[in-house]
Amino acid sequence: MPSAKVIKTRIKSVNNTKKITKAMEMVAAAKMRRSVEAVLRTRTYANLSWTTVINLSKAVGAAGSLHPLLTKKEKVRKVAIILLTSNRGLCGGFNSAILKKTHDSVVKHEKNKDGEKIETEIIVVGKKGMGAYSRYGYKVIAEFPKVDIASEALEIRPIASMAVSGYLEGRFDKVMVAFTDFVSASSQAPRIKQLLPVDVVAEKDHYLGVVGRDTRVGLDQEYVKKKEEKYLKEKKDSYTFTFEPSPKEVLDDMVPRLIEIQLFQALLESNASEHSARMTAMHQASESAKDLADRLQLYYNKARQAAITNEIAEISAGANALK
Amino acid sequence: MFENHKIIKFEIVTQERVVMKEMIYQVTVPTKEGEITIMPKHMPLVAILVPGVIEIKKENGEVEIASVSGGFIEVLRNKVVLLADTAERAMDIDEKRAEEARIRATDNLKNIRQFDAEEYASISGAIAKELARTKAVIKWKKIRKP
Q1: Which CATH number fits domain B8-90: 3.90.1010.10, 3.30.420.10, 2.60.15.10, 2.160.10.10?
Q2: Which of chain B's residues have a Cβ under 8 Å away from the Cβ of A55?
Q3: What residue of B is the nearest CA neighbor of A264?
Q4: What are the tens digits of pLDDT across the range B56-102?
Q5: Using the beta-carbon criterion (under 8 Å), do B45 and A234 form an inter-chain contact?
Q6: Do B46 and A153 make contact, defined as CB atoms within 8 angstroms?
Q7: Is this complex's ipTM strictly greater than 0.90?
Q8: Labelling A126: which of A3, B51, B86, B98 has CA 20 to 30 A away?
Q9: Where does CATH 1.10.287.80 sit in chain A?
Q10: pTM: predicted TM-score of the whole model, two decimal places
Q11: Contacts of B140 (CB under 8 A, 6+ apart)
């Protein structure tokens, strides 16, 4: 058994670690609260721009051709995935979960309808995203720094414009975004959503963020439905918008913004998830540090007692020898 | 079509937050086609905004001024939503700092050595935005101290 002194040092170091993890937990909790607020704040804009684009594409679609960002490519050969990861570790399985999800999805959609192989390229956001290359060997075409507290949609503009220009120039036939959906403080789910082409007539699952039961992010289907009923229908007559200068021009302006806001939301979601994942991880770390310290304290007590017993035995043996 | 709408629900939202949410009588906004005023019973409309000043007449008769740097306006049956790139209420803008920012933006243009279309566009966008802010503040002051 190690000596009491050794154990004492150990206890001290464990307690110090506990203090650190506790502090990190609290920092993460505060950051999480802020990022969740940010997600909620952007929701209005996201919802409104979605409804406008849907209305617009109805108006334009009837008249003629759609916006290039709204039209699907016939053959999908190249896919770009925008991968949102964290800058720092110590956040549990956050990064590995999103990496694995991305990998699974790539494997699942390896071939297109005609049986041709689909090439996948990754646009990484956040330092930890390079794992996509080092672990799975994907081709990473760009790496963007990630802002931990994103306050402005401006910050994701370069990423959005890269995706848009890549799509328009035909470098990608599809752009997906891989992010971690913030379901609640205790659960986050990695998700992959289609960013481009913008799917205006999608089924339920395709809107960014609206998956499963949780409709707090991205487009709120209920909201759109209600809005149409409330504002666009008078008794049985529904009416259409007038667009100034022209539907096409409005659409040209609106679609890039929609893409931006979607990416921005995905980033905010990821941030909220990252912080809550870190909070949980650090909470667990603090707990196990506490357990360890308690166990070590027992050992220490035993060692101390053993030392005392030993000493007494030695003293009494010495006294006996003098007799 | 909507006989009983005498008041408009008005909202200004940016990507980051909801700037304003009020019940109003009328609003004047700068669009690409020129300045338009929206009153109750306006027909549904979506228009592109240009940087400029928004004038809002509120339910209680007060007039409020805000600046906008571009975006969209969406007119619904009894609701008007402004999807702005950035927007600020004039009461929140500091006049001196707005003026300084405007001068800074203008100076940037002078300092361009090589002509770069993208840079030029971003700088002139910034100038238009700052100009709108200063204008909004000046107008706001005029209204408050006649």
Answers
A1: 2.60.15.10
A2: 46
A3: B15
A4: 998 888 888 999 988 889 888 778 889 888 888 888 888 788 888 88
A5: no
A6: no
A7: no
A8: B86
A9: 4-27+284-312
A10: 0.79
A11: B65, B90, B91, B93
